[in-house]
Amino acid sequence: MPQLQRAPRADNRLPLLLDEAARLFGTQGFHGTSIRDIVRAVNMLPGSIYYHFATKDLLLAAVYAEGVRRISDRVRAAFDARTDPWDRLEAACVAHLEALLAENNYARVVIRVQPADVPSVAPDLVAQRDGYERLFVDLIACLPVERSVDRRSLRLMLLGALNWTQTWYRPGRDDPRTIARRFVKLLRAPIAKE
Amino acid sequence: MPQLQRAPRADNRLPLLLDEAARLFGTQGFHGTSIRDIVRAVNMLPGSIYYHFATKDLLLAAVYAEGVRRISDRVRAAFDARTDPWDRLEAACVAHLEALLAENNYARVVIRVQPADVPSVAPDLVAQRDGYERLFVDLIACLPVERSVDRRSLRLMLLGALNWTQTWYRPGRDDPRTIARRFVKLLRAPIAKE
DNA sequence: ATAAAAGACAAACGTTTGTTTGTTCCAGTC
DNA sequence: GACTGGAACAAACAAACGTTTGTCTTTTAT
User: Fold this and answer.
1) What is the mean pLDDT of residues A30-55?
2) Which residue of B has its CA nearest to A157?
3) N or C: fewer beta carbons within 10 Å in chain A?
4) Nearest Cβ partner for B31 among A31, A182, A190
């Protein structure tokens, strides 16, 4: 582990390493990705990773944390620009899905990797994800909805539907923005025919 | 592989083996489960599994197929008993979620394991899951909804939300039946306050 | 210039992985 | 009761796994 008694060197490949770990953890999952898979693309040797992280589990924890940071920033920036409660929620969903499907390997990890897959850091991961989802708790708390509506279920349904897109989404057809808007609209507007 | 030139023996432990594989694949995922994990609970030796299956991938394929069969039967039986389109959809969702969360390790595998995790049999798994989801295509095709509603999005949203419950559901609180009904209601009834 | 720390290499460690091979045993059939 | 094939055991395989250890190089601060 780096002691950081001095500033990190300019030529260090930790960022590249994290990028590649994010890419592989996000597409192949934690157990489906080996240390050797990760270092190969960065032209490192397997052992070299242990200068930066004590275990593979902690490497994941670092990627996961970065993922939560990025998607949080992205989503917050998106809904901060709006005022209407439904607009804010929609903007958040669009940002969430764009991060998830189009642009951000780190964000993918947060959705793909289940904390239970990595017991040694599971509580940490759960706490981080809960922190992120609190953004949506607040957004949904502000919605003007009928009193009979359970807001927790609303959140779980919406986020579940969004996160599950990772399973079936293929680039080229409908883009993430369109999908997110459709989902919000399905919840907002009356569906059943009179 | 068994040649089946004679009937299988009454004392063979293949059923037990499959049950345990379903349980572990469903809770720990494919890559998170080793052959030794599986045989341990059945008091077998690792090599013995290869009398029944040529590879670990094909073992998964067998469990997956059984999972699709079971959840299909369960869901079909549930909505066959109803006539109203919305009732039928709700019954299907309840059965889907009960199979997923409460009773059926095989069904869990179908939702938990991503075909991409097992390249050698991925096309087969995808085809099977598509076959199952066609049940919902038909159910949703019968719904009386506004003409502006995209039924494909409706299906993807509903199934996504249901499947994602596997991530957050913990026994003891709301039961699967309640959750499924709430989700359907959120889609069916107008939410937004006038 | 020099010392110290950053960061990676080189090579191996012990373990776990999926799988193979040869043998044994017992239930079912004639 | 002998034969046979279903179903498992016993033991090992090679490869891949996460990780450790010791050494070397290169950047950075003095």
Assistant:
1) 97
2) B161
3) C
4) A31
User: Once rounded to an integer, what is the mean pLDDT over residues B114-137?
Assistant: 97
Q: Which nucleotides of D are covered by protein (CB under 7 A)?
A: 5-12, 16-22, 26-29
10 Å CB burial of residue A71 (0-12, 13-18, 19+) is buried
Q: Is the pLDDT of residue B194 over 70?
A: no
Q: Do A145 and B32 touch (CB under 8 A)?
A: no
From the CA of A13 to the C1' of C9: give the distance in Å. 14
- The residue with tokens 């239970």 is A116
3-state helix, strand, coil in chain A (%, to 5): 70, 0, 30
CB atoms within 10 A of CB A74: 17
Decide if A120 contacts A54 (C-beta within 8 A): no
**What distance in Å separates the CA atoms of residue B169 and residue B179, rounded to the nearest whole number?**
10
Calculate mean pLDDT across residues B3-24. Answer: 87
Q: CA B11, C1' D7: Å apart?
A: 9
What average pLDDT does this structure show over A72-97?
Answer: 97
Tell me the average pLDDT of chain B. 94
Closest CA in chain B for residue A29: B117
